[in-house]
Each structure stands twice: as structure tokens, then as C-alpha cells.
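Possible regression after last week's pipeline update?

I re-ran a chain I had predicted before the update to compare outputs. Posting the input and the new output here so someone can diff against the archived version. Not blocking, just want to make sure nothing changed silently.
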Amino acid sequence: MEVTDKLDAVHDDPVADAVVQTILTAGIGSLVRGGIGLVSGLVDILTSSSEEAGTAAGSVGAELVPKATISLGKWGEARLAQTLGGAGFKPTKAFITSLGPRYVDRLVGNVAYESKAGINVALNSRLETQALKDAELVASGRISGAVWYFWQGAQPETLDFLNALGIRTEVVP
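New output (post-update):
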């Protein structure tokens, strides 16, 4: 399928179209400078089938997670891999913690990386739990550090919470 056909498919899906418009208006259009292949990849993600979306959603189940949310998360993970120069990998198994399993977005050496693609990410119970799991993994020596990337901003209390736990944060415009 040609890129133009893929873009037409995005415009036919109001949710996918809204995600593309949000990305472009949030100043992330600079990704386009990476070439048409990146745009084509984003379009592939946005137009993926619900079965593919379910795989991306993991144990949550695609029926409970809006397709655009899954797609934005996939985009963030792809951008993280690109930013890290392709180093490391996405682990297929979770780290087991006292708070439950922790699936990290990327592991480079012994450092866990998390990607947050939402706009101005707020501190909430899900994010707090993820961060506490990372802090436990560092404290137990199972990983040597954790770094979280925010692609469209984060609220100050989010960054303060992570930094207080010893988690390094990177806000990338």
C-alpha cells in the first residue's frame, strides 16, 4: 500500500486522524524530518487491526483500550528506540516485583527505559505504581537505573515524583 493510500485510510478513521492531528499540532511534526518511512510506519500503526492492537495492549485487552491510545503508545516506543539508536530491546517477559509485574518499554544494558507519549502527562495511580516498581527494581539491584522519556511534556508533580524516586526524566520537545 502506498503512503498516500495509507494517509487516506487514516483520514477515513476519525480516531486515527485525531491522533495524527494531535501529533502534528503538538510540535511533533519534526518526526517527519526522519523521512517518509517514519510517516508510513506511523500510519501503519494507526491503521493496524484490532488483533494487532490487542497484542500491543498486552493483558489489558484491546476492547478496553482505545485504538488511538495503543497507537500513540506504539509511536512513543518507536521514537524511544530511534532516540536510543536502536540499542537494547523490548523484553518479552516482565520483571516481577512486590507490586506486580513490570513490563519495561526498553532495556539497554541494565537500564530500564519508559516512554510516555501522552500530552502533559499527569501523575496518576498507574504511573505511580510503574515508578514504584522501577524504584524497587533499582533498590534490589535487578536493574541499575530507570530513565523515563516524555515526548509531549509532563506536569511538574509527575517529574518531581519520579526524580524523588531516583528515576531520571527526559522531556523531549
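Follow-up from reviewer: compared with the archived run. The first helix runs from residue 3 to 12. Marking as no regression found.
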